[in-house]
Amino acid sequence: MSERPTFSNCAGVGTEPVIALDGVAKSFAGFRVIEDLSFRVRRGEIVTLLGRTGAGKTTVLNLVMGTLQPDAGSVRVAGHDPFLQFKALRGHMAVSFQTDRLLPWRTAVENAELGLLILGRPKREAREIAASWLDRVGLSGAENRYVHELSGGMRQRVSLARALAVDPELVLLDESFSQLDHITSSALRRDFCNLARQFEKTCLMVTHRIDDAIEMADRVIVLGAKARIRLEATVPSASAVGQTRDGLRRDIEIALGPEAEQESSQQERG
Amino acid sequence: MEGLAPRPAARPAAIGDIVAMSVVVIAILVTMHVVSGFVPDYIMPSPAAVAKAGWKILTGDMLHVMATVGRLMLALLFSMVAGVLIGLIMGVSASIRPFLRALVVIDTGIPALSWILLAVFWFKDPEVRIFFILTMILLPFYALNTYDGIRALPKDLVDMIESFRPSRWQIVRYLIAPHIVPYILLTTKTVVGYATRMVIFAELVAAAVGIGSRMGLAQSSFHIDEVMAWTFLLVVLNMILQLIVSGVEKIALKWRPEASVR
To answer: Which residues of B touch A (CB under 8 A)?
Structure first.
């Protein structure tokens, strides 16, 4: 992208909750995955759910998406029950997944316009919006390439363009950058953050990478076993005095447990 | 911007295939010529006699060829549409699925000969008979393969499209329909030769016009050269049909990378 707005945390965050979970519980085949989880995400806020594998992060995301119904408690998205009022949130929410999930028979621009077409936007208008989003994610010139002609990073960019093109109020990210190499992942994270803040999107992001959480989020929620909240903290700005990002990193590592500390030190050595 | 993966180079013309086909055809003609010198004409006519009969067909019997091709196309198209619809319903409706699947499975177990004999009893009009026979034989292929195609839909893609909260029709339009196109084309490629054989067989028993009926007439009047000429014509017809399907496949599936194994 030619122009990148300056990265700054907590810009334009409102007080109104877009996502509200209260006392949510969820089990699969008698196995309790989430127990009494409550948290809120305010309008314009970027919140990261951080946790080890099996902590129930993706289940939380699926509950917010409305593809799962909680066994107990309530999930509200913009005041609606996302499961029972599934269609009410049409156009208000978009998801970027761990893998690009592009349709191989569609070109990059055709993939990017998919959500718009589903929302009933006229073909020509959808194409123009999709092309402009491809341009924003740095894929100008690759609009008419099929999926197999794009690299992994480019595919993930198309996936992001597809999610953002529908102009959703809420963007859910499910480990969207974890399958990419460090350099591509870092560039995409930065691009996404800038776009999300520029267009004042509310984002709930699931990740197991501490770096992603600290770099992108306004607030970090660390989940332990059964999605119990182990830590909830606001991310200090990069230039903050007092509570620094390094301090938060240490707190997150402690909240995640000894394996996280080990993993982090391995990353540092690497 | 990251580097674009190179567009795959167009496959070079399969000259080897053409050469191999020519060698096999020449070998068959030479064998026919040699054998025809030792046996009577009604067992093995010479290639020249077959060519003469072939010319007679091309100049005088094209109506029969067109009748057969027309029947084949109509039945193939109808079976494709109806079979795909049945497969789609099987794929998206869990309540109707067991009943349709049972019907289709029973249909696949009924021999083609049974349909031919039943059609002769049930219908007076030869066109209806042939249409019915071909449809009953071809339809299950499309229905089952479409259903298999829907079952093979990657869950990731279903979740992705559902995240936009589409209508059921939009899921069919944007996900299921394009996904099953390769299955439909593969089915067509597989059944087109079989369908050609079946239409000839049905015409032999149930019609007075068409290649099958002409072959029956030639056989009953001991014109083996004509039988041979019709046979060659059918082989060529099948090759043309396969080429057409391959051409359609190339256009419809241009998004698919060509894989090659070393």
So the answer is: 1-7, 156-157, 159-166, 170, 174-175, 178-179, 181, 254-257
